[in-house]
């Protein structure tokens, strides 16, 4: 009917407690910039939207690449950056990046992926993504990397 496991972990001598939450630098805030979030997973889209809106961004959503191209074209003057998943059905992230570059060669793109193959990451960077975040990532990392992309900085690891 099931298994029982007991895990015994040794105590680490000399370990330090994690820093107090107040000591952690707060994530950077947006300044009302409009971000297009593209991901085929509804939960990821909605969570990303919530995080970005809570930190001062306006958010447009698209469930896949062709929908994102239409949304970008309709709001081209408003969208300051695109956060897109690389692995999506129909039009994947690499194809989306190519299409967006045709519309606006200087569009800022932050790609995300749950795939560990470096060929997908390398392709996204070659096509002009400024950064590729590996899933799962924390809200703090997303906000910090997005801010760096928007500010034209090289995002820190």
Structural features, described:
The structure is a single chain. By secondary structure, the chain is α/β, with parallel strands linked by helices. It has helices spanning about 40-55, 65-75, 95-105, 120-125, 140-150, and strands spanning about 35-40, 60, 80-85, 110-115, 130-135. It has 5 helices and 5 strands. A 5-stranded parallel sheet has the order 2-1-3-4-5, sandwiched between helices. Helix 3 links the parallel strand 3 and strand 4 (about 110-115). The longest helix is centred in the N-terminal third of the chain and has 13 residues, at about 40-55. It is globular.
Write a concise keyword list for the protein shown above:
single chain; 157 residues; alpha/beta; 5-stranded parallel sheet; 17% strand
Question: What is the topological layout?
Answer:
Layout: E1 34-38, H1 42-54, E2 58-62, H2 65-74, E3 79-85, H3 93-103, E4 108-113, H4 118-127, E5 131-134, H5 139-150
Parallel strand pairs: 1-2, 1-3, 3-4, 4-5
